[in-house]
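Tutorial sheet, problem 5. The four components below are modelled jointly, 674 residues in total.
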Amino acid sequence: MTQATIRDVAREAGLSVASVSRALNGHKSVRPETRAHVVAVADRLGYVPHAGARSLSMARSNAIGVVLPDLHGEFFSEIVRGMDREASRRGLQLLLSNMHADPAQATQALRAMRGRVDGLLIMSPQMRADGWSSAVPRGLPAVLINSSDDNGHHPALRMDNRAGAAAVARHFATIGRRSIVHVAGPDHNVDARERRDGFAEAIGREIPGALLTLLPGNFTEESGEAAARHILAENIPVDAIFAANDMMAVGCLQTLRDAGRQVPAEIAIAGFDDVPIARYLGLTTIRVGIAEIGARAVERLATMMDDEGDDAPLVEWHQPDLVVRGTTTGSAPQDKS
Amino acid sequence: MTQATIRDVAREAGLSVASVSRALNGHKSVRPETRAHVVAVADRLGYVPHAGARSLSMARSNAIGVVLPDLHGEFFSEIVRGMDREASRRGLQLLLSNMHADPAQATQALRAMRGRVDGLLIMSPQMRADGWSSAVPRGLPAVLINSSDDNGHHPALRMDNRAGAAAVARHFATIGRRSIVHVAGPDHNVDARERRDGFAEAIGREIPGALLTLLPGNFTEESGEAAARHILAENIPVDAIFAANDMMAVGCLQTLRDAGRQVPAEIAIAGFDDVPIARYLGLTTIRVGIAEIGARAVERLATMMDDEGDDAPLVEWHQPDLVVRGTTTGSAPQDKS
DNA sequence: TTGTATGCGTTATCAA
DNA sequence: TTGATAACGCATACAA
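Model answer (structure tokens):
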């Protein structure tokens, strides 16, 4: 009662395994009636080709490995959705694995991909590349997503955090704010660093003489609340806050409003990511086409797997968009743009 | 510059491939110095075992196939996170695939798993089991998650939609509501049907003489808005609404408040799922331990893969919890329980 | 303790 | 057009 193999089909059809293989794979050199017979027998026996054996023989698995860190809700589902869309369009399977923060585990995850996949999609914003880059199985093409630099060993897709942060700075300038606070993300995270540096630079350029205060955070809502409490307790001068992600911005927003501060009248607040909650709370933020990045990553990897030739630029920057909502303008928080 | 194979290691170490295999896999019958030598050589050559060849030889891939439909944000990431946690604990890889609504594509996805994985996790709330159940490769153990019945061919994990819906009904009874509206999900979805039927039954039991109106929906926020507009336009008597999921409840909530209705004073509103937005809007809802279900599914599948014996009950019901928030009580919507 | 040989399920090369 | 057979990379039964 186990699965039928190609040999079962061959025996039952009175043919050689070679002929069955050719018939099933649509080779031209096989008589129509033979093919029909083979297909009928295969169908009757419920034959399904063994993908493992097939990929061993063909030296190609038609699968790609996806190594992601612990991602929060929408971000995770969107990037996987984008990858899946493009992958299934190309007949590729997705082998998912977690990019643990621990280099040893990361190494393990990467090595486990050897012999299972034809290429790798690696996302590791929180770890330096030398922590894992030697673990990428030799000969496996790989595309990096929002990861710290790899010395150009692999092509990379990056969202342009600096450009997004600069857009917020320009927006703050437009609405006339001058006492700015940035709540940063964890320092080991490359996205967080770029948003912070890009923002600081843009503020200096866009709002000469502005006061910029940097507060630490770790991407959680709680750290956003803590930052807001710190602002209140220390009486830090502020008429605009840019948090390095939406969840921290939400924490700020709630805490400041609970404390009776008017948003945006007294203090404008902006985040980064455009998670669904941002829309409901009317939070100004930076939208990232995350599904598109996932799909594009698969696309680039697929071309690397097919033809060795790789003409696309090594690093591809994806531009995010500023989404202006109620927390930086007068309109109601119910705005659902 | 391609990957080294076990033969390269054997040649370089002056041993047979058998010895190298034994040394690397920790067999007892190999001299310590031999093992050390082999490990050193393997390390120097950057040898990584070819998982495909290994699984062909061992008739075991240490991977499990996960076939999910298009899931929204938090739901998707949580269930995958739960699966991944348990899978990596057991040294299993996750092969992800989309359970398309089209039976032909679903069949394809299932068949593509043959020879790649040792077991299957299948979630298909929107399609009848006969649409795909014959496509499950013979001999592959499988666990069903929130899928319509399979005639007992495979063990199943189900969230107890009826119990969740009944909890809402009891809650409505407690707060003294009598004119009830249920905004249902798509009829082809088994979760939606169970929530509707369980709710109707519980209302009959808990609130004798209550008026229950059933409105159609499709799980989207827009269909929730439409239902609310319908209620307003037709002047349907209502003091409590149970939507089959949170997104529709959110649509109702916004539309009714925009129309000037008091929630919860005039109309109480409850949803199902407890997505993150529910917390921010203070929406009463039903919380499902979705990550736990994912982890438990892997656990059950793993035991099926190891020992053939399967003693656990065929269908395992997971109980959801009622989460009472502002949309059904007097407390403020900012409640962050 | 180590080596030889076989098989896992397929595809591909070469003859027939 | 078809068949026999050698890979693919590894694990293991059996022999030495």
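Marking note: The first strand of chain A starts at residue 63 and ends at 68. Full credit if you identified this.
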